[in-house]
C-alpha cells in the first residue's frame, strides 16, 4: 500500500513541477490488521467459556439443581470451564508480558541432570493417568545457563501437548544432548501428528489444527506461542517435525 504526498513547486522561470513523496505503509497496515485479528480472537476465546458458564448456571437455577446427577455433571462442567478461563487469562497476561519484553530472565548455571528430572516429575502423574509410557534419556551430563522457572514452563507446555495429542497406549520421550553447535532437548510423541500444511502456523497465537480437540484437552491455543518466545529469549530455536498418525518431535537448540 503506497501513500503519496504531492507538493507543487514553481521554478524560477514560472514553470511548475510536483514533488511526490511516496511512503510504503504496507507494514503499518499489516500490523494493524494483526492487532485487530488478535483482539477479535481474544474476545471470542473469552466469550465461549463465559457463555457456557452462564448457560449451565441458569439451567441449574431453573431447577436442574434438584436432580443430583445433573447437578454434579453441570457443576463439573462449570468447574472445568472456569479453570480453562483462568488458564486463558493467565496465558494472555504472560504472553503480553513476554511480547512487550517485560520478562527478565533470571539465568543460572545448572546441569541438565539437575534441571530436567524435577520438571518431568511434575507431569509424571498425568502421564500415568493417561496410560502413556514415558522414556527419559539424558545421556552425558553438561552445564547450561537458563531461567529455571521459564525453562520449566517451556518443557511442561511441550510435554502437556504431547500428552494431550497422544492416545492412550502411546509413548512420550524426552532426551537431551550436545553437539558442536548447540545443546538440545527433544520431546517426542507417538500421537496424532500435525498435517504438513499446518506446521508453519502452529506457533501463531490461537492457531489450532483441530479446535474441538484442543478445547476438549483444555488447551488455550497460546502454549506454543509462549514456548517459542521463551526459547528465543534464551537465544534458542525451536523446530518441529511431524507425521500424521505417527507422531511429533519438537527440538529445541541453544547455541553454546
Ligand atoms: P493448544 O492449547 O491448542 O494445545 P498450543 O499453542 O500448545 O495450543 O498448540 C497449537 C496447536 O498445535 C494445537 O492445537 C495442536 O493442534 C497442535 N499441536 C501442538 N503440539 C502437538 C503435538 N504434540 N501433537 C499434535 N499436535 C500438536
UniProtKB/TrEMBL annotation:
It is found in: Cell membrane. It comes from the Bacteria. Residues 41-256 form the Histidine kinase domain. This is histidine kinase. It comes from Salinithrix halophila. The lineage of its organism: Bacteria, Bacillati, Bacillota, Bacilli, Bacillales. The chain holds residues 320 to 575 of 575 of the full protein.
